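Running this now, will post back.
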Amino acid sequence: MINQLFDNFERSEFSDEIFSIFGRALTVATRFDVLTKALARLPLFKLAIVSRSTLSDDEYKQLVQNVSKKYSNLSRAIESLKLNEDISDLLTHARESRNELVHEATLGFIEGFDSFNEQELFQLLDHVKGIVLNVIKGERLISTIISIQNNEPVSNCQFSHDYESKYVNWVMERFEKE
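Update: finished.
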């Protein structure tokens, strides 16, 4: 068996800069995940609130705990929303991109990025940018649905290309030395 123990604790500014991109991408992925699950649970929480007056404190606490545990799987949370096929497809694509970011994006890069040539780095970052954009589109849709469900105003800025561009740039920004 090959020793898989991590033993390279050397860091470089360059690799840290690239790993920072992955950290911000994970932040976007986590936000999509949490908001989607919150939307799936929203009707159940509303029912729990309505039921509050008929339950004891312990029963209510148990009900809220049970609702909080529902839809802990992102795929089932999306399925539970019962949205039209086009929207479900967009969210499924966002989920798949989220999964790639969370589970696969940094596989094989434990040694850092210092050995990458310019083209390899460009291809990697362009791929990350694409999957981050997929997640942003899903998160934007989920945020909008939550606003509608809660009778809150929907911000027009999140539907602009500028919003996507700013969000992606926040993730992908690097402080390269001139």
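The longest helix spans residues 13-51. More later if anyone needs it.
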